[in-house]
Amino acid sequence: MLSYDMGERGNASRYDYLYRRIRHDIAHGNILPDEKLPSKRALARNLGVSVITVEAAYAQLIAEGYVRAEERRGYFACELSPVARGGRQGGARNRGNARTGGVSGGAAGQRGFAFEGATGRHAASPDSDAARSPAASPTRRLASLRFPAHTFGDSPFSDSAGDPMTFVPSSGAAATVLFPYQTWARVMRRTLTEESSATLAEAALAAGSPRLRQAIASYLREYCGMEVPAERIVIAAGSQTLYQLIVQLLGRERTFATECPGYPLLERMYDAQGARCASVPLAAGGIDVAALSESGASVAHVMPAHQFPTGVVMSAAHRRDLLNWSRMDAARAFSSDGPRGRFIIEDDYDAEFRMSGRPIAPLASVDVAGRVIYLNSFTKSLGAAFRIAYMALPEDLAAQFELKLGFYSNTVSPLEQLALARFIEQGHYERHVNRLRTHVKRLQDGLVGRVRESSLAKEVAFEGLDRGLYFLMRVRKGTQDRAVGALQAAGVQLAFLGRGPLAWSGAQSGESVFALNCESLNIEELVLP
What whole-number distance in Å separates Cα of residue 515 and Cα of residue 311? Predict the structure, then answer.
């Protein structure tokens, strides 16, 4: 029977403390692969906590691929590769079967799709009459926005105008409308009147405002358990600027691996910087690490928590294999002329929108070898009006950044940096994200509920709900036109991803797979057959 002293949890919640202790024991081999864990009730009795506490801890461990649930048998620890200590590494196993958690690293039915796209201009600005109208609901205001579209694959479906269905990338549609502009205006006024010339000058440094970097460091620690000193955080005007800095920091002579399928603009961005790219396929639990090893790449750009566009949540086994890949020759990772060895770029673009359980723990939070560069952006949460992103560098890379790129001026306005720092410190950011998350969940639940009450109930299956802004819809052959037409008419943004069987989606033969975004959904106009 597992036994932990719950009195040592400090300020952590009971379920979070229990989850972390079990995760630690599985990762360090104290709980062996395939070892059966106590039942929820038995463990709750032994620890003196509620069954709900144990259930929440187990659910998070399943989501991250440390534990698998087997019907009528119980909970079992998943198998992880031994930690690599440097030197040559054998080929990683291709994981993804039922015993390691499949696509989600957890129980069946937890798969999903999520999409991120480049920020674009809206036809209706947040300050337009329609956006300011108090009578206009957030959903109606969202429906008036238009976004640039990117075609994803060859779609056999067409919209009402006969054009091929295109994917409409999210540029913070809901955030743009729901953002508390009056609060931001007050914060900005206080910033203008109270900040000194010295703090404004500091914000112009290459890495950005120390105050904003500290606010982000505190947020990462509280929100996803990631301990990173503020001195290792770099602010920039959007993710694309960060990609440019990373290429300059690591070197253009490298090969950068991107996931396939993946965000289509990544390769173009790296190509534009003069770097080589290698497209590496996905396995069921994340990027195929064996194929990555054969690609010749020394940098892997991955999205472990919510992969674009498949929504795969990288399993714990794949995370261990990927970290082991990055640790090869880690002892010779730095030389007089710059960084050497392998690195992982962790793109955590959708982190704030996980609606069930705690956020998936970042790779960077368990990286002890200093091989992971963590990236995130405020565009999803603050809206398209804000071009602010950040990265957290390993210690040695942070020193290299200051040495090689410290002469740059920061690309984000000092006023915006200091205002955002205040916005985070005063709790406005957390309240806004909570409101935004609740709004999107209500739209998702509304759509799913209406579909399940309609004649499409037996033809449509949803997966990956509560994972983020996007989720998966699988439609049986012969009903696609009805389902797609009704959802598009109500403002649902969707993209055709392919027909089954698709290894990374679990689609069956004859099924069509779509990704859905409900940010612009108008429930009142949703008419289903």
Answer: 9
* Cα separation, 343 vs 323, whole angstroms: 9
Handedness of CA 17, 19, 24, 25 (dihedral sign): positive
Over the Cα atoms of the chain, what is R_g? 23
Rounded distance between C-alpha atoms, residue 100 and residue 112, angstroms: 17
- In angstroms, rounded to a whole number, what is the distance separating the alpha carbons of residues 478 and 61? 38
Alpha-helical runs (H) found in 225-356: 239-250, 265-272, 289-294, 316-326
Strands 286-287 and 67-70: unpaired
Structure-token pair, residue 302? 């991955």
Residue 508 φ then ψ, to 5°: -95, 165
- Residue tagged 């069921």 (tokens): 284
Strands 460-463 and 372-377: unpaired
> Nearest 5 degrees, angle CA 316-CA 318-CA 324?
105
Contact yes or no for 71/20 (Cβ under 8 A): no
Reference 241, options 325, 119, 79; nearest CA is 119
Report DSSP letters for 433-479, one per residue: HHHHHHHHHHHHHHHHHHHHTSTTTTTEEEESTTSSSEEEEEE-TT-
Cis peptide bond upstream of 309, omega within 30: yes
DSSP string, 88-142: --PPPP---SGGGTGGGTSSTT-------------SS-TTSHHHH-TTS-HHHHH
Mean pLDDT by 10 residues, the chain (529 residues): 85 87 90 92 91 91 89 90 58 38 32 28 33 41 35 44 42 78 95 91 94 96 89 95 95 93 86 92 88 94 86 87 86 62 92 81 91 92 88 95 94 95 95 90 89 87 82 82 80 77 71 82 78
Residue 295, both tokens? 């690609």
Contact of 327 with 86, CB cutoff 8 Å: yes
* Sign for the pseudo-dihedral over CA of 401, 404, 405, 408: positive
What's the token pair of residue 399?
A: 């020193």
Q: How far is CA 366 from CA 27, 28, 363, in A?
A: 10, 12, 6
Q: Which of 322, 285, 316 is nearest to 27 (CA)?
A: 316
CA distance 83 to 321: 8
Burial of 59 (0-12, 13-18, 19+ CB in 10 A): buried
Six-digit token string for 15: 């379920």
What is the DSSP annotation of 7-22?
GG-TTS-HHHHHHHHH
Contact 327, 371 (CB under 8 A): yes
Angle (deg, nearest 10), helices 239-250 and 265-272: 50
